Amino acid sequence: MRSLLSRAKIPLLTILAMAVAILAASETNSYYLYVINLCMINAIAAVGLVILTGVAGQISLATAALLAIGSYSTAILMVHLGLGFLPAAVLGAFATTAIGTILAGPALRLTGLHVAIVTLAFGIIVVQLIGKGGTFTGGMSGMTLPPVTILGWALDSEWRRFIVILIPFALVTAGSIRFLRLKPGRALRALRERELAARTLGVNASAYKILAFAYASFLGGVSGALYASLKGYISVDDFTLWNSIYFFVMIALGGMTSIVGGIAGAFVVTAAPEFLRGFQEASQAVFGVLLFLIVVFFPGGIVTPFAGLSRLLSTRKKRAAAPGANENPPGSPSR
Amino acid sequence: MTQPILHFDQISVRFGGVVALDGVGFDIARGDTFGIIGPNGAGKTTLFNCISGFIKPEAGGRIDFNGKNLIGRSVHEVAKLGISRSFQNIALMHDLTGRQNILTGLHLRLAYHPLASILPLRRVADAEAQAARQIEKICDLLKISGAVLDTRVDALPLGQQKKIEVARAVVRAPELLLLDEPAGGLNDRETADLIGSLESLRASSELTIVVIDHDMNLVMDLCDQLAVLDFGKLIAIGAAAEVQDDPAVIAVYLGEQDAA
Question: Model ipTM?
Answer without folding.
Answer: 0.93
